[in-house]
Task: inverse folding
């Protein structure tokens, strides 16, 4: 009986790219997946960009990745809301990636008595938006956030991300958000459904123990940690769970060897 070809869920930042620079050898790894006709998705908790924008940015670094191979926390959030409350209304703090995903599922974005407050990343959080979100959540709007990441990276250095802003709203309202993105297994299940593959036949590749590896293990996937991003080899032993494989980078990964 022939082995089933493994599919791959792959984190983006720290795994394939550092900002606008490709991780050395990432292009060869992606080409190996394509040549071997593997199903794969690039996952990102960042909800700012549309899949088309992200595909273009990755292609500029030299990676042969198409729009249909990208899955964001904005898409996962839209999928969650569509299943929970179809054709709803929301006050949205975020960029085009999030607003477009919600428009596609028939959501109306409004500041007048919305059913949800949906928080994602934006290029410029402002106190007026945050204040409005706090008042709406206090008034009964359900609070959903795309991901719990407290900080992100920019050309100037670290910057507050969705998780930090969510903590501010939570502290002011005493109401916790529902986070859709990693490490919530919900995003992983949504990605598996999108790719139409089973968890037992899929490997999660990431650079963070506390999001990528944790969400993969929680979803029943085999996991591979790469040391090209956040987690260092000496950090792995601090966690009560371990990835199945550890690689210096994706350049070392040959899919046939993991089947």
Result:
């Amino acid at each position: 009986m022939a082995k089933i070809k493994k599919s791959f869920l792959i984190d983006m930042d720290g795994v394939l790219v550092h900002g606008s620079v490709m991780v050395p050898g990432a292009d060869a790894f992606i080409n190996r997946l394509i040549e071997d006709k593997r199903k794969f998705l690039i996952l990102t908790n960042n909800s700012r960009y549309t899949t088309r924008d992200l595909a273009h940015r990755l292609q500029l670094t030299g990676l042969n990745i198409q729009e249909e191979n990208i899955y964001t926390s904005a898409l996962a959030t839209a999928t969650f809301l569509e299943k929970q409350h179809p054709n709803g209304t929301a006050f949205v703090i975020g960029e085009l990636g999030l607003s477009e995903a919600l428009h596609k599922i028939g959501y109306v974005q409004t500041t007048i008595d919305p059913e949800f407050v949906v928080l994602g990343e934006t290029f410029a959080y402002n106190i007026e938006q945050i204040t409005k979100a706090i008042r709406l959540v206090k008034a009964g709007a359900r609070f959903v956030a795309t991901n719990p990441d407290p900080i992100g990276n920019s050309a100037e250095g670290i910057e507050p991300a969705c998780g930090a802003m969510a903590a501010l709203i939570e502290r002011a309202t005493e109401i916790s958000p529902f986070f859709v993105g990693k490490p919530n297994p919900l995003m992983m299940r949504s990605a598996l459904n999108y790719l139409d593959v089973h968890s037992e036949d899929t490997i999660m590749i990431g650079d963070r123990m506390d999001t990528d590896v944790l969400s993969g293990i929680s979803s029943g996937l085999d996991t591979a940690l790469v040391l090209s991003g956040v987690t260092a080899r000496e950090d792995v032993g601090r966690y009560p769970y371990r990835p199945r494989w550890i690689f210096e980078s994706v350049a070392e990964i040959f899919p046939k060897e993991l089947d």
The first helix runs from residue 26 to 35.
